[in-house]
Design goal:
With about 210 residues, the protein is an alpha+beta fold. It has one domain: Roll (FAS1 domain). The strands form 2 sheets. It has a 4-stranded mixed beta sheet. The chain has a 3-stranded antiparallel beta sheet with strand order 3-4-5, with no helix packed on it. α3 packs across α6 and α4 crosses α5. The longest helix has 14 residues. The radius of gyration is 16 Å and the shape is globular. Pfam families: Fasciclin. Keywords: Signal. It comes from Actinoplanes aureus. This is Fasciclin domain-containing protein.
Amino acid sequence: MRLNRFAAVATAAVVASTLAAAPAAAHGKPLKTRSLAAVLTADKSGFDRNGHDFDILTAAVGAVLKAKPSSPVGVLADGKTRVTAFIPNDLAFRRLVADIKHTKRLPGEKKAFTAVAGLGIDTVESVLLYHVVPGATINRKAALKADGARLKTAAGSTVKVNVYGRHWKRVALIDADRSDRNPRVIRFDINKGNRQIAHGIDRVLRPINLP
């Protein structure tokens, strides 16, 4: 079953998870230490009809840290540690759930989170780590110059940067799924000026190739 395969293979990625440092982006002035977790939890709206915020992601991070307080996902709450995270919005998670359930109907945010959590905490953890690049603060300017770069994630595997567009440069991320559209960055430099920075994406990065 496709859902079970996604869970089984993604869980295996936890074993290889690492927070090995990557080269940090250069900055002209010292960066502040507000964490990405602080940014995410500042939104108190909870599950709603806004597909462009990060309620499902916030709930997923919270669920992992509640079940596994020492999880590497906790780096998102350590503002002194440099990371770059590519964070899927709520619509991205809803699309993922619809895809693995073979339906065109998108679930609501609460149902989407329930489905994601149903994959198991280890699977959720490994998928979250696949969205985190430790040791580097990569802002929009640096990302647009990184075409072809392979970024090592906290899950131990890599994603490839694809900068495209003739007049207006855009960024997509090539993950392990070769049969679905690659996630695109739709919002840059969340938490800019801090050691931890994020870029919003419109699909969930997939650590395996779903048929």
